[in-house]
């Protein structure tokens, strides 16, 4: 049986930040389960950078079914956690089940990969303090307010936490996360 990795997300998550780790970790031999507020078909978005805009733009992206609802998740069944970005973390961070799940991974020193707006979730769960994390650059004040050190980097490793700014950082981010997984939670 393959080792299982949990990916927590919801509507308006960034398509690339869901699918790149989902597919790359499956390629490594892990089973990846997608958890969301409910079992339903999720609508992801595409965030892109357009000349003349002060921030990213958002367009409809892919859809994909959630494997399970947050309330159904037993985090003890999983060896690692992925928290993609997009707009989903803005509302997911308020979900008590997401907070319960995230605390389990941090308290158990299990590998966690977070990217872009994903650190909003770990900050709300109260587990980012004292750590070092990358995030989408506009979140620097949020990361610091959570008691963490912000680093503007493509693959920031703090123990078992691996973070990045956004989807352009995927190769370095997943390479670093897979290195952590191979030591802490190899695919069965």
From TrEMBL:
**Ranges for the DJ-1/PfpI domain?**
4-179
Q: Which PROSITE patterns match?
A: PEPTIDASE_C56_PFPI (PS51276)
Q: Which domain of life is it from?
A: Bacteria
Regions annotated as coiled coil: none
PANTHER family named in the record = DJ-1 PROTEIN, DJ-1_THIJ_PFPI FAMILY PROTEIN
What the record says about family reads: Belongs to the peptidase C56 family.
Protein name from the UniProt record: DJ-1/PfpI family protein
Q: What is the lineage of its organism?
A: Bacteria, Bacillati, Actinomycetota, Actinomycetes, Kitasatosporales
């Amino acid at each position: 049986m393959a080792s299982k990795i949990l990916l927590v997300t919801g509507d308006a998550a960034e398509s690339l930040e869901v699918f790149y780790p989902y597919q790359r970790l499956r390629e490594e031999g892990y089973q990846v389960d997608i958890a969301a507020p409910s079992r339903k078909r999720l609508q992801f978005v595409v965030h892109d950078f357009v000349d003349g805009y002060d921030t990213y733009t958002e367009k409809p992206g892919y859809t994909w079914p959630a494997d399970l609802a947050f309330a159904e998740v037993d985090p003890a069944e999983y060896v690692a956690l992925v928290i993609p970005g997009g707009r989903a973390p803005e509302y997911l961070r308020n979900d008590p089940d997401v907070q319960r799940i995230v605390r389990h991974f941090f308290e158990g020193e299990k590998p966690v990969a977070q990217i872009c707006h994903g650190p909003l979730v770990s900050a709300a769960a109260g587990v980012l303090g004292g750590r070092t994390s990358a995030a989408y650059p506009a979140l620097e004040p949020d990361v610091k307010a959570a008691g963490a050190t912000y680093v503007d980097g493509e693959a920031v490793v703090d123990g078992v936490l691996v973070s990045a700014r956004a989807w352009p950082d995927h190769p370095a981010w997943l390479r670093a996360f897979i290195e952590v997984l191979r030591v802490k939670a190899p695919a069965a």
